[in-house]
TrEMBL record:
GO terms for molecular function: rRNA binding; structural constituent of ribosome. It comes from Ferruginivarius sediminum. One of its GO terms (biological process) is cytoplasmic translation. The keyword Calcium does not apply. Part of the 50S ribosomal subunit. This protein binds to the 23S rRNA, and is important in its secondary structure. It is located near the subunit interface in the base of the L7/L12 stalk, and near the tRNA binding site of the peptidyltransferase center. This is Large ribosomal subunit protein uL6. One of its GO terms (cellular component) is cytosolic large ribosomal subunit. SUPFAM superfamilies: Ribosomal protein L6 (SSF56053). The lineage of its organism: Bacteria, Pseudomonadati, Pseudomonadota, Alphaproteobacteria, Rhodospirillales. The keyword rRNA-binding applies. Keywords: Ribonucleoprotein, Ribosomal protein, RNA-binding, rRNA-binding. Belongs to the universal ribosomal protein uL6 family. Residues 11-82, 90-164 form the Large ribosomal subunit protein uL6 alpha-beta domain.
Protein backbone atom coordinates (compact mmCIF):
# COMPACT_ATOMS: atom_id res chain seq x y z
CA UNK A 1 0.00 0.00 0.00
CA UNK A 2 1.37 3.41 -0.95
CA UNK A 3 2.40 5.57 1.96
CA UNK A 4 3.06 8.50 -0.35
CA UNK A 5 -0.23 8.21 -2.21
CA UNK A 6 -2.36 8.34 0.95
CA UNK A 7 -1.44 11.96 1.68
CA UNK A 8 -3.33 14.58 -0.34
CA UNK A 9 -1.42 17.34 -2.11
CA UNK A 10 -2.18 20.78 -0.67
CA UNK A 11 -2.62 23.34 -3.45
CA UNK A 12 -1.38 26.75 -2.20
CA UNK A 13 -2.91 30.11 -3.11
CA UNK A 14 -1.80 31.32 -6.52
CA UNK A 15 -1.63 27.82 -8.01
CA UNK A 16 -4.37 26.58 -10.30
CA UNK A 17 -4.63 22.82 -10.81
CA UNK A 18 -6.81 21.41 -13.61
CA UNK A 19 -7.52 17.74 -14.32
CA UNK A 20 -8.24 17.07 -17.98
CA UNK A 21 -9.14 13.68 -19.48
CA UNK A 22 -5.58 12.47 -19.99
CA UNK A 23 -3.36 15.03 -18.22
CA UNK A 24 -2.95 17.31 -15.22
CA UNK A 25 -2.06 20.98 -15.70
CA UNK A 26 -0.63 23.24 -12.97
CA UNK A 27 -0.35 27.02 -13.42
CA UNK A 28 1.44 29.35 -11.05
CA UNK A 29 3.66 32.40 -10.87
CA UNK A 30 6.66 30.50 -12.31
CA UNK A 31 4.87 29.08 -15.33
CA UNK A 32 2.74 26.16 -16.42
CA UNK A 33 3.52 22.45 -16.17
CA UNK A 34 1.60 19.45 -17.49
CA UNK A 35 1.91 15.73 -16.80
CA UNK A 36 0.14 12.73 -18.32
CA UNK A 37 -2.56 11.04 -16.24
CA UNK A 38 -2.81 7.25 -16.13
CA UNK A 39 -6.10 5.35 -16.39
CA UNK A 40 -5.01 3.29 -13.38
CA UNK A 41 -5.68 6.10 -10.89
CA UNK A 42 -8.70 8.21 -9.95
CA UNK A 43 -8.17 11.83 -8.99
CA UNK A 44 -10.22 14.25 -6.93
CA UNK A 45 -9.75 17.97 -6.39
CA UNK A 46 -11.73 19.66 -3.62
CA UNK A 47 -11.19 22.34 -0.97
CA UNK A 48 -7.64 23.10 -2.12
CA UNK A 49 -6.50 19.50 -1.80
CA UNK A 50 -5.72 17.04 -4.58
CA UNK A 51 -6.23 13.35 -3.74
CA UNK A 52 -5.25 10.26 -5.76
CA UNK A 53 -6.79 6.78 -5.45
CA UNK A 54 -5.94 3.57 -7.31
CA UNK A 55 -8.64 2.58 -9.84
CA UNK A 56 -8.28 -1.13 -9.04
CA UNK A 57 -6.20 -3.41 -6.82
CA UNK A 58 -3.45 -4.40 -9.25
CA UNK A 59 0.20 -3.90 -8.45
CA UNK A 60 0.62 -1.49 -11.39
CA UNK A 61 -2.31 0.66 -10.15
CA UNK A 62 -0.83 0.84 -6.65
CA UNK A 63 2.55 1.83 -8.14
CA UNK A 64 0.97 4.58 -10.24
CA UNK A 65 -0.92 5.80 -7.15
CA UNK A 66 2.21 7.00 -5.35
CA UNK A 67 3.95 8.05 -8.57
CA UNK A 68 1.06 10.26 -9.69
CA UNK A 69 0.83 11.90 -6.27
CA UNK A 70 4.58 12.61 -6.23
CA UNK A 71 4.52 14.05 -9.78
CA UNK A 72 1.60 16.35 -8.88
CA UNK A 73 3.38 17.47 -5.68
CA UNK A 74 6.51 18.32 -7.70
CA UNK A 75 4.43 20.25 -10.25
CA UNK A 76 2.68 22.29 -7.53
CA UNK A 77 5.99 23.03 -5.77
CA UNK A 78 7.65 23.87 -9.08
CA UNK A 79 5.10 26.44 -10.26
CA UNK A 80 4.87 28.07 -6.82
CA UNK A 81 8.44 28.03 -5.45
CA UNK A 82 10.64 26.36 -8.09
CA UNK A 83 13.61 24.02 -7.75
CA UNK A 84 17.33 24.81 -7.53
CA UNK A 85 20.48 22.70 -7.87
CA UNK A 86 23.87 24.08 -6.89
CA UNK A 87 27.12 22.94 -8.53
CA UNK A 88 30.66 23.63 -7.31
CA UNK A 89 33.69 23.73 -9.58
CA UNK A 90 36.96 22.57 -8.00
CA UNK A 91 40.32 22.89 -9.75
CA UNK A 92 42.98 25.44 -10.63
CA UNK A 93 41.81 27.48 -13.62
CA UNK A 94 38.38 25.83 -13.71
CA UNK A 95 35.61 28.41 -13.96
CA UNK A 96 32.19 29.18 -15.37
CA UNK A 97 30.36 32.28 -16.55
CA UNK A 98 27.03 33.03 -18.18
CA UNK A 99 27.15 34.91 -21.48
CA UNK A 100 23.62 35.64 -22.73
CA UNK A 101 21.86 32.27 -23.24
CA UNK A 102 25.11 30.27 -23.02
CA UNK A 103 27.07 28.87 -20.08
CA UNK A 104 30.80 29.10 -20.82
CA UNK A 105 32.85 26.49 -18.94
CA UNK A 106 36.66 26.39 -18.71
CA UNK A 107 37.49 22.95 -17.34
CA UNK A 108 41.12 22.31 -18.21
CA UNK A 109 40.49 21.10 -21.75
CA UNK A 110 42.18 22.66 -24.80
CA UNK A 111 38.86 24.37 -25.61
CA UNK A 112 36.03 26.10 -23.74
CA UNK A 113 32.69 24.30 -23.44
CA UNK A 114 29.68 26.39 -24.47
CA UNK A 115 26.48 24.93 -23.04
CA UNK A 116 23.26 26.47 -24.43
CA UNK A 117 20.82 27.19 -21.59
CA UNK A 118 17.50 25.38 -22.26
CA UNK A 119 14.13 27.15 -22.31
CA UNK A 120 12.56 27.42 -18.84
CA UNK A 121 15.89 27.03 -17.01
CA UNK A 122 17.81 29.87 -15.32
CA UNK A 123 21.54 29.56 -14.67
CA UNK A 124 23.45 32.01 -12.47
CA UNK A 125 27.13 32.15 -11.55
CA UNK A 126 27.55 34.14 -8.33
CA UNK A 127 31.24 33.21 -8.27
CA UNK A 128 33.32 31.72 -11.09
CA UNK A 129 33.41 28.44 -9.16
CA UNK A 130 29.70 28.08 -8.38
CA UNK A 131 26.76 27.46 -10.72
CA UNK A 132 23.12 27.75 -9.64
CA UNK A 133 20.52 26.05 -11.85
CA UNK A 134 16.85 26.83 -11.21
CA UNK A 135 13.49 26.29 -12.86
CA UNK A 136 9.93 25.05 -12.36
CA UNK A 137 10.36 21.48 -13.68
CA UNK A 138 12.27 19.32 -11.19
CA UNK A 139 13.22 16.73 -13.81
CA UNK A 140 14.66 19.30 -16.24
CA UNK A 141 16.62 21.10 -13.51
CA UNK A 142 18.18 17.80 -12.43
CA UNK A 143 18.89 16.76 -16.03
CA UNK A 144 20.65 20.05 -16.83
CA UNK A 145 22.71 19.77 -13.63
CA UNK A 146 23.69 16.19 -14.52
CA UNK A 147 24.69 17.21 -18.07
CA UNK A 148 26.88 20.06 -16.79
CA UNK A 149 28.45 17.79 -14.15
CA UNK A 150 29.12 15.23 -16.90
CA UNK A 151 31.55 17.58 -18.69
CA UNK A 152 34.12 17.02 -15.91
CA UNK A 153 32.95 14.69 -13.10
CA UNK A 154 34.97 14.88 -9.88
CA UNK A 155 37.99 12.61 -9.87
CA UNK A 156 38.86 10.60 -6.74
CA UNK A 157 42.53 11.59 -6.25
CA UNK A 158 42.48 15.38 -5.98
CA UNK A 159 38.71 15.97 -6.12
CA UNK A 160 38.99 18.19 -9.21
CA UNK A 161 35.91 18.59 -11.38
CA UNK A 162 32.27 19.65 -11.11
CA UNK A 163 30.31 18.34 -8.12
CA UNK A 164 26.93 18.96 -6.55
CA UNK A 165 26.99 21.28 -3.54
CA UNK A 166 27.34 19.14 -0.42
CA UNK A 167 28.35 16.02 -2.40
CA UNK A 168 30.97 13.88 -0.68
CA UNK A 169 33.70 12.69 -3.05
CA UNK A 170 35.25 9.35 -2.07
CA UNK A 171 38.95 10.14 -2.06
CA UNK A 172 41.63 7.59 -2.89
CA UNK A 173 45.20 7.51 -1.65
CA UNK A 174 47.82 8.34 -4.25
CA UNK A 175 51.02 6.46 -5.12
CA UNK A 176 53.34 5.47 -2.32
CA UNK A 177 57.12 5.62 -2.57
Amino acid sequence: MSRVGKNPVTVPDGVELKVESDRIVAKGKLGELAAPLSDLVKTELKDGEFAVEPANDTQKARAMWGTTRAVVQNMVTGVSAGFTRELEIVGVGYRAQVQGQTLNLQLGYSHDINYPIPEGITIKCAKPTSVSISGADKQRVGQVAAEIRGFRPPEPYKGKGIKYAGEQILRKEGKKK
